Amino acid sequence: MTTERLLNLLARPETPSREVLAAALALEDFRPVYELADHIRREHKGNVVDIRAILEFSNHCRRRCRYCGLNAANRNLGRFRMPPEEMVETVHQAAQAGYRTIVLQSGEDPWYTPERLGEIIRRIRQNDDIAVTVSCGEMPEDDYAALKESGADRYLLKHETADPELYDRLHPCGTLKNRVECLKNLKKLGFETGSGFMIGLPGQTLATIADDLLLLKEIGCDMAGIGPFIPHPDTELRDVPEGSTELCKRAVALARILLPECNLPATTALGVVNNGEKNDVFSCGANVVMRKVTPTRYKALYEIYPAKLGETHIVAQRRELEEQIRALGREPL
Ligand code: SAM
């Protein structure tokens, strides 16, 4: 298929097929697709880059995802839980610094029952005018409903891979079917729903990445995090090479074309692999960036994948990011 034919198929309102998406991912010269994605981003999201704060409040996890440093089998990791009071205070500092969204993320940690987490969300909403995104894994529908009731607006639960066999190999504790069911429940409950997936999982192909993109569309995602897999030395996937940043950016661009209104972060993982290239991510369709506000003493313990994390300075780091975004001719929000 010629590049021109592919572009025509991508630009049509109908959802492109798996074959078209896989062929687009493999293009020798992807520039025309980036240009299309950037155009759609400008039309639908304007020039604004949405800066969101993420607070990683517990690294306890009952699951054993084979790629993740937090997996329950990792005995080398010191575990922590942030006391609710400290969580509420940290979110307050983020709100004071200008953040309008806080992402509360943790491993699947049953200590934070829907009641406890709900109470924390209620207090955050009483204190500050800040949207709350929860990212705490799979829960029964009633628990999601309780979190919604307490004031959570959004939920982030990546489907990780849309290939059921690959999903089974990587997740001894869950199924793709249940993960997708959770996403559909969240959508039904009225959450702004975020999914996403990793690039570079062992056994993944361009066709399965096309399936990942089509699943985002099927769910009707309001948000999608697409980032490279990065090997963690204390996991079974320690020797698998990290995912390609170029392929990630291509997937982000195609997600923008499939879901013009979707909020697409330049994912943290992408920033870690190749900080210098992060600007390119904005020009290929991304419109969101996340910054950690996790207090320094917990930050190093939230090691999903190895990363050089410095100290947290909530105000200074937000200002720095705002300046970087303005320097790119974009408007920080
Ligand atoms: N427990 C919640 C959940 O399951 O959605 C949120 C925490 S989980 C650690 C957040 C995300 O980290 C996952 O959705 C996964 O995509 C990502 N992640 C875990 N290990 C990773 C790795 N080695 N490389 C890149 N991303 C990873």
Strand count, sense and barrel status of the largest sheet are: 9 strands, parallel
User: What order do the helices and strands follow?
Assistant: HHHEHEHEHEHHEHEHEHHEHHE
Structural class category: alpha/beta
Distance between the termini: 40 Å
Mean pLDDT: 93
What CATH architecture do you see? Answer: Alpha-Beta Barrel
Question: Any overview of this molecule?
Answer:
The chain has helices at residues 3-11, 18-25, 31-45, 84-96, 114-127, 141-149, 164-170, 176-188, 206-219, 245-258, 268-273, 278-283, 296-299, 314-327, and strands at 48-58, 101-106, 131-135, 154-156, 192-199, 223-228, 265-266, 288-292, 331-332. The chain is of the alpha/beta class. Strands 1, 2, 3, 4, 5, 6, 7, 8 and 9 form a 9-stranded parallel beta sheet that branches. Helix 5 (114-127) links the parallel strand 2 (101-106) and strand 3. Helix 2 packs across helix 9 (206-219) and helix 4 runs parallel beside helix 5 (114-127). The termini are far apart. The mean pLDDT is 93. The structure holds S-adenosylmethionine. S-adenosylmethionine is lined by residues 67-68, 70, 105, 107-108, 135-137, 157-158, 160, 198, 227, 229-230, 232, 269, 304-305.
Which key phrases capture this entry?
single chain; 9-stranded parallel β-sheet; TIM Barrel; 333 residues; 44% helix; binds S-adenosylmethionine; 9 strands; alpha/beta; 14 helices
List the SSEs and their pairings.
Blueprint lengths: L2 H9 L6 H8 L5 H15 L2 E11 L25 H13 L4 E6 L7 H14 L3 E5 L5 H9 L4 E3 L7 H7 L5 H13 L3 E8 L6 H14 L3 E6 L16 H14 L6 E2 L1 H6 L4 H6 L4 E5 L3 H4 L14 H14 L3 E2 L1
Parallel strand pairs: 1-2, 1-8, 1-9, 2-3, 3-4, 4-5, 5-6, 7-8
Helix pairs in contact: 1-2, 2-9, 3-10, 4-5, 5-6, 9-10
The chain binds S-adenosylmethionine (SAM).
